[in-house]
Amino acid sequence: MVVQTATPQAATLRSATVITSETVRLSDLFADLEPGQDRPLGPGPAPGASIQVGGGQLLAIADEYGVDWLDQSPSAMATITRAGRMLDQTFFAELVRQNLPEIGNGPVAIELQDFHPFVVATDDPKPVVLSDVKWDQHSGWFTATAYRGRPVGDITQDSFMLTGVIHATHRVIVYARSLPSGTVLSASDVRMNDAYAEHLASKTFTNAAEVEGLTLTHGVVAGEAVSDQDVQRTILLHRGDPVLIAFTAPGLHLTATGRALEDGGASQYARVLNLMSHMIITGRVVSASEVEVEPGSGGVPSDSAGMRSLAAAALAPPRADLSLR
């Protein structure tokens, strides 16, 4: 009777391996090891870093631990990378907030100065500890000392100064794109920013409807807050101009002739006089010759003083200015 014995299966080289442990094992280099053959080899790379093991070293390791592997070659190469977790500005900003309860829960922006992100182990529950946190509430500047939870033995990396400034943020309308001077703003040109951290030197807007139809007095950059110094009212309808008054409702469309009682810009509301009913109506300026009256909007009777003012405006010479701040 002939007894057949199983032929051990040859191991295969792992050309690229990602580990989470601090230690490199034989199984990180070779797959299909025999039972009980795996063992630790030495320290692994730092979190986020890699090491390469060349063919000569692989042959020596395989020989020392009795690993029979396929395609043995001095030109073989294995790369071992240790997984890591990136600690970025968002992480440290939240850490600063946790260490400064006096900031409160209001909207603030925490900006770090000369910051460089670094990588820590993925299983490190408390990778950084802040100490000596100081904050000048008047200027907004803060300083702190950051210590690694797991020191790496390098004094230049195990602790460092964390500095920055804390700004109160604002909810404002900002430009959605860069725009040239003379642009008449529409709703698509702006967007809401709930945490705008830049300094506000002048009045800003918090509602897109407030800037629709205004004209830019100079070029602007995407992301800037929309300021009253950027815009001017675009006059389409001048006081005394003839105008068509339009009223539209489901199944109904009425028009009447009138005259403007005041200047009005695009999408703004202006008072007009209905020349047939002599009622003063408020409508939205659609163009230089049309005002749209919304359903439910009522009129008020005109008085003799208003009529005289309208007549004087109609007889006045045309003006050269086309816009009003």
Automatic annotation (TrEMBL):
Gene: flgA
Family annotation (CDD domains): SAF_CpaB_FlgA_like
Pfam families: ChapFlgA
Any single GO CC term annotated in Swiss-Prot or TrEMBL for this entry: periplasmic space
Ranges that cross the membrane: none
Keyword Signal: yes
UniProt subcellular location: Periplasm
Listed name of the protein: Flagellar basal body P-ring formation protein FlgA
Predominant cellular place of this UniProt entry's protein: periplasm
Keywords: Cell projection, Cilium, Flagellum, Periplasm, Signal
